[in-house]
């Protein structure tokens, strides 16, 4: 009987390790949006929760069953070592090791151990262990939850693309290549803007300082115009470039919409017909039901220039 029990423990442990290695090193969730990527990362915590709980339960079935805290320590150390080895292996198979993944591994392992301890400790300790496990799992899942809410808000607010009053929409906006983008109170010089917040962008000395609006609500086909507003506080005009792509974009300059926009000092409203946007120099017609990305950028700015942007929308 003892031999069968030992065989079962070893078999379950080996199967857990093999399945975990496959999930960590090979498996990929189907989507490539920020939600799916963050959920893929959060999966580390869920997986290590399961690993830690299973191994704690297996050790509890051995002669160490009356030493729950000893088991907890051994399982925690083993989980962290296993997680570290997985990250090292990733460096040799074309993927990047990540400290954030290690932190998620640790959160999941501690949560799994806490659930195990909740089964073997007294009432007060059981409550503490359960609450700690729930808090760790919620924290590890908080980012994909935020992205899921942001995606829902993006759909609810459409045809508004970004207005910077809604923090969820602002999650899909990012400054790149020496463009410092931040949401600020509407400057007093922009007197006709009644919103409370706008996007302030300092276009700096990068090659193409830019602001990227990604993971757009894709179907623009029911609308006529793309519109946004800008305020140029400089005393001279600033040329702002606009780039819009769809999901069939071939990475060629002629296969995307490009425009040079001269922003005069003060207030500017930019309105571009979608019929114009859809006609590409490559000869292809942009699929307005599959719009993918919007970028505004400048050339290298010496010295840097600041623009205020707001109310990106379709009409």
Automatic annotation (TrEMBL):
Residue runs in coiled coils: none
Transmembrane residue ranges: 7-25, 45-62, 69-90, 102-120, 127-149
InterPro entries assigned to the protein according to its UniProt record, in alphabetical order: Galactose-bd-like_sf
Keyword terms, alphabetized: Membrane, Transmembrane, Transmembrane helix
Name of this protein: VanZ family protein
Species name: Saccharophagus degradans
């Amino acid at each position: 009987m003892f031999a069968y029990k030992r065989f079962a423990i070893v078999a379950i442990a080996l199967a857990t390790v093999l399945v975990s290695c496959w999930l960590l090193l090979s498996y990929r969730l189907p989507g490539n949006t920020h939600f799916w990527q963050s959920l893929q990362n959060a999966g580390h915590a869920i997986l290590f929760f399961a690993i830690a709980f299973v191994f704690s339960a297996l050790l509890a079935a051995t002669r160490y069953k009356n030493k729950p805290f000893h088991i907890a320590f051994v399982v925690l150390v083993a989980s962290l070592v296993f997680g570290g080895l997985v990250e090292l292996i990733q460096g040799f198979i074309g993927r990047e090791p990540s400290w954030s993944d290690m932190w998620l591994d640790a959160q999941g392992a501690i949560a799994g151990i806490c659930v195990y301890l909740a089964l073997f400790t007294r009432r007060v300790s059981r409550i503490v262990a359960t609450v700690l496990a729930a808090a760790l799992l919620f924290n590890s899942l908080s980012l994909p939850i935020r992205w899921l809410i942001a995606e829902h808000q993006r759909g609810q607010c459409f045809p508004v693309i970004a207005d910077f009053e809604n923090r969820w929409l602002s999650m899909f906006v990012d400054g790149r290549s020496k463009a410092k983008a931040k949401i600020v109170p509407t400057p007093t010089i922009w007197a006709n803007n009644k919103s409370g917040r706008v996007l302030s962008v300092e276009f700096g000395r990068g090659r193409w300082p830019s602001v990227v609006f990604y993971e757009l609500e894709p179907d623009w086909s029911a609308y006529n115009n793309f519109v946004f507003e800008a305020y140029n506080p400089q005393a001279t005009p600033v040329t702002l470039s606009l780039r819009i792509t769809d999901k069939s974009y071939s990475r060629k300059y002629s296969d995307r919409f490009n425009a040079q926009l001269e922003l005069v000092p003060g207030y500017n409203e930019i309105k571009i017909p979608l019929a114009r946007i859809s006609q590409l120099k490559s000869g292809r017609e942009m699929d307005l039901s599959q719009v993918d990305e919007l970028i505004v950028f400048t050339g290298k700015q010496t010295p840097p220039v600041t623009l205020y942007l707001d109310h990106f929308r379709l009409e």
